[in-house]
Write a structure and sequence with these properties.
InterPro entries: Pept_tRNA_hydro, Pept_tRNA_hydro_CS, Pept_tRNA_hydro_sf. It contains six helices and seven strands. The termini are far apart. The chain has a single domain, classed as Rossmann fold (3-Layer(aba) Sandwich), CATH 3.40.50. It is of the alpha/beta class and 196 residues long. The longest helix has 25 residues. The chain has a seven-stranded mixed β-sheet, sandwiched between helices.
């Protein structure tokens, strides 16, 4: 069975752990907790990432879960290195990331397209030489008032968001990755893009 590579984007270190920009890495940890046989533990890999090889369902394909150990704007090197190491084609690379242009709490899926000013995606696209990887886009909404989007994404989720929005968003994000792998992009889009 073909291997999948699932990347959760974020910045390394405890100072960034609760940031909106790290919601992709948080969703990857949610996925790791669902691994067959118990929580998959991410361990350092020579491709400058933390990696776990697992399966998300019994009898399912091998899934490599990873978070780059570099900063967001340098994520692409780790993704390209892991793609080569595990011999995964670009159409089975899934990148989970925060998305300002989607309402907070919504999850959207797509393949290819632009980066929308997201430095992590820009780095991945440049390093892979392709935009055709899959994206699981976790909506964090636009900043309030005139707050700079760059400042907004580097702020922690509020206490209310951490109790009401975040658990749901991470659960939905993990569900979306599982659906992508299990039923493919179009069926997963129909499931997650439908009004709820």
């Amino acid at each position: 069975m073909d291997t999948w590579l699932v990347i959760g984007l974020g910045n390394p270190g405890p100072g960034y752990a609760g940031n909106r920009h790290n919601v992709g890495a948080m969703a990857l940890e949610e996925l790791a907790g669902r691994a067959v046989g118990g929580r998959a533990v991410l361990k350092p890999h020579k491709a400058r990432a933390r990696v776990a090889e697992t399966r998300l369902e019994v009898g399912g394909p091998k899934v490599v879960l990873a978070t780059p150990s570099s900063y967001m704007n340098e994520s692409g090197g780790a993704v390209a290195g892991l793609m080569k190491y595990y011999d995964v084609p670009v159409e089975r690379v899934v990148v989970i990331h925060d998305e300002l242009d989607i309402d907070a709490g919504l999850v959207r899926l797509k393949q290819g397209g632009g980066e929308g000013g997201h430095n992590g995606l820009r780095s991945v696209t440049k390093s892979l030489g392709s935009k055709e990887y899959l994206r699981v886009r976790l909506g964090i909404g636009r900043p309030p008032g005139r707050q700079d989007p760059a400042d907004f994404v580097l702020k922690d989720f509020s206490k209310a968001e951490r109790t009401e929005l975040l658990p749901f968003l991470l659960d939905e994000g993990a569900d979306a990755v599982e659906a992508l792998i299990e039923v493919g992009l179009l069926d997963a889009q129909q499931r997650f893009h439908a009004p709820r």
